[in-house]
Amino acid sequence: MNERIQRGQETKRKIIETAIALFHERGFNNVTVDEIVQRTNTSKGAFYNHFRSKHEVFAEQFKEIDRFYVHHLVPQLDSNKTVIERLTLFLDLQMDYIQEQIGWDVTRTIYEHELSTEHSSYFLDPKRPLYDILLKLCEEGILNNEFKNSFTADEIVAVLIHAMRGLLYDWSLHRGKISLVGEQKKVFKVLLDGLRDNRMFYNE
After folding, report:
1. Which ranges of 69-179 would DSSP assign to H, the alpha helix?
2. How far apart are CA 146 and CA 197, in angstroms?
3. What digits encode the pLDDT tens for the residues 46-104?
4. What is the pTM of this model?
5. Measured between alpha carbons, how far is 114 from 140 in angstroms, rounded to an integer?
6. Is the dihedral of CA 192, 194, 197, 198 positive or negative?
7. Residue 200's CB: how many other CB atoms inside 10 A?
8. Which residues bind DNA (predicted)?
9. What is the dihedral of CA 35, 39, 45, 51, to 10 degrees?
């Protein structure tokens, strides 16, 4: 990698980290591109070389969130545990991370950005690492007869994703005044209980 490309990547990383920190600190709508540029000691030209608007920073934030899932959450899942137990832990860790590290205002803004008709939504990208994590777990769960055989792995993943979006949207509507972690425990317990094949557990 030549020096020019490396400098460009470092500038982009600095803009992302600073912008996200400002959004957490003051709220998305209260932060301007001018302020981001000033805090990063860069220029508007440098900012717009990487992003068309401050909303585009969220595309990178999405990738950061998925990378966090892959590198920090998945390694905490004990392969000796059942898939249901691993899914439960993953969802606990995921929602705790979003609640404590991302925050409701940034989450709300991500949803606003993804509802734009000007671009395709990252939510729907089948290559998202989150989908791959869930799909592998669900395929293993079906193989181990942990889930009812009336569901495919893709169908189970779709249900899990729909529940995640609903929880995050509802949390955003409440402006973070309810516990995302607490609500997800209730919702996913009902959901996973409905998906599990109880014959396996009765025979243990």
Report:
1. 83-97, 104-114, 129-143, 153-173
2. 5
3. 999 999 888 788 667 777 888 899 999 999 999 999 999 999 999 999 999 999 988 88
4. 0.78
5. 31
6. positive
7. 15
8. 32-51
9. -80
**CB of 191 closer than 8 Å to CB of 159:** yes
CATH 1.10.10.60 positions along the chain are 1-51
The token pair that represents 25 in the structure block: 């600190």
pLDDT in tens, 125-174: 888 899 999 999 999 999 999 998 899 999 999 999 999 999 999 999 99
C-alpha 104: how far from chain center: 12
Domain with CATH 1.10.357.10 in the chain: 55-202
74 by Cβ neighbours in 10 Å (0-12 / 13-18 / 19+) ranks as middle
In CATH, 55-202 is 1.10.357.10: yes
Q: Positive or negative, the Cα torsion across 88, 166, 153, 190?
A: positive
CATH number of 1-51: 1.10.10.60
